[in-house]
Specification:
This protein is α+β, with helices and mostly antiparallel strands. The chain has helices spanning about 25-40, 55-65, 110-115, 155-170, 190-200, 205-210, 300-350, 360-410; strands at about 5-20, 45-50, 70-75, 80-85, 90-95, 115-125, 135-140, 175-185, 205, 210-215, 245-250, 255-260, 280-290. This is sphingomyelin phosphodiesterase.
Length: about 400
């Protein structure tokens, strides 16, 4: 509505790639990020992959003057890596950890140990500017892709996208504006991002921005970045866009993206970029309107049904693979148990005096027993893990089937 006051909200989002002992020039880059945030004075800062709580504490001390409110989300074995800095009061927080997050035996990837999550800080923005909007902001990261041609984690990432969409729908009812920033590890046209946007009604700041400045096509993993693994980008010479700022208005507000920027290589005055990802910066205008905004779902129900169907198909593929893995690990556990029983029978026979004319090979017997015990423990653990994986995939498939039926039955 013309004449209504407008809240101008500046948002900064970055995957910091701050892995202690592994990330290149991490302390220097964390200091550089803090200096830039203090100088630029954004309203809301959403960071991912801040794996060290000491790095977060250093940032919190440095930024206390311009970002008096902050929160670090703890999750998993080594932490979620998510943190938020805000000029507005953070009224409450919530962390939701995805039910599926890769495989514990894939040590070279490590996503399972991170406890990938979505962190939700609820705040009230613009109290001093004439516009008061309960603001629901989310910082998150989904499971990495690693290999696009043979993406073994696609079903898990789709489960995460579906849980994230459900999380947003059920937690945003009391908010006027929803903001989401993070590394979604999905290309803009991937089924997961289409499912998330379609099911929640979130809008892409890059697609909606009046002005854009930065890497071509808004890419956030680019070959020119000195920290980027160039081999991963061979099929994409311009880079890929996997970091997003998404938003929507829920009640009597409108949100427009005035400007979107990405960083482009080294930070000003330095020889290194902030991270192996480019940062995303958005300027949003939030304004009260006369009538409440429409529902998130509506005219695009048929297109959304196609997206849900595609996602459900991929989840079904993952479900079949998980069942196969569960069967294989269960069979291995049974074989290891049978081997132990045979060894126990042989040992009892020796103790009973059978075959006493030949010496009992104690060393070989013990080594074989330890091997069988190790295989039994490993196979049992894998069987339990894949059993849980089957349950989660099956549950998500059921939810998608019900959602699909509801969409198809709408008049």
């Amino acid at each position: 509505m013309e004449g209504e006051p407008t809240l101008r909200l500046r948002i900064f989002d970055l995957n910091c790639w701050a892995i202690r002992y592994l990330s290149k020039r991490r302390p220097e880059r964390v200091r550089l990020i803090g200096d830039t945030l203090r100088r630029e004075g954004f309203d809301l800062v959403l960071l991912q992959e801040v794996w060290s709580e000491q790095d977060y504490s250093d940032l919190r001390v440095k930024l206390a003057g311009c970002y008096p409110f902050s929160h670090y989300f703890r999750s998993g074995v080594i932490g979620s890596g998510l943190c938020v800095f805000s000029r507005f009061p953070i009224l409450d927080t919530l962390l939701y950890q995805y039910s599926l997050n890769g495989y514990p035996y894939m040590l070279q990837h490590g996503d399972w140990f991170c406890g990938k999550s979505v962190g939700l800080p609820g705040s009230r923005a613009g109290v001093r500017m004439g516009v008061t909007a309960p603001l629901l902001s989310l910082s998150l990261q989904l499971h990495a892709e690693y290999c696009r041609e043979k993406d073994a984690y696609l079903p898990h990432r789709l489960v995460q996208a579906w849980e994230l969409a459900q999380f947003i729908r059920h937690t945003s009812k009391a908010a006027d504006v929803v903001l989401l920033g993070g590394d979604l590890n999905m290309h803009p046209e991937d089924v997961g991002i289409r499912l998330l946007r379609g099911w929640t009604g979130l809008r892409d700041a890059f697609a909606e921005a009046t002005r854009f400045e930065g890497c071509k096509n808004g890419c956030t993993l680019v070959p020119d970045n000195c920290f980027t693994d160039k081999s991963e980008l061979l099929p994409f010479p311009l880079g890929i866009r996997i970091d997003y700022i998404l938003y929507k208005a829920i009640s009597s507000f409108t949100v427009k993206c005035e400007e979107l920027k990405t960083t482009t290589g080294p930070a000003p005055g330095t020889d290194i970029p902030f991270s192996d990802h480019e940062a995303v910066m958005a300027t949003l205008h939030i304004q009260r309107q006369g009538q409440p905004a429409g529902a998130a779902l509506g005219t695009a129900d048929l297109a959304l049904a196609d997206v849900v169907t595609e996602a459900r198909t991929e989840v079904g593929v993952g479900l079949r693979e998980a069942r196969r893995q569960r069967y294989s690990s269960g069979r291995m556990a049974v074989l290891a148990l049978l081997l132990l029983l045979l060894q126990a029978a042989a040992a009892l026979g020796t103790l009973a005096g059978l075959g006493a004319e030949q010496p009992f090979p104690k060393l070989s017997f013990c080594l074989l027993a330890f091997l069988a015990l190790g295989v039994l423990a490993l196979a049992t653990g894998l069987h339990l893990f894949h059993t849980m994986e089957v349950k989660m995939l099956h549950g998500t498939e059921d939810q998608m089937r019900m959602a699909l039926r509801a969409l198809q039955e709408r008049p």
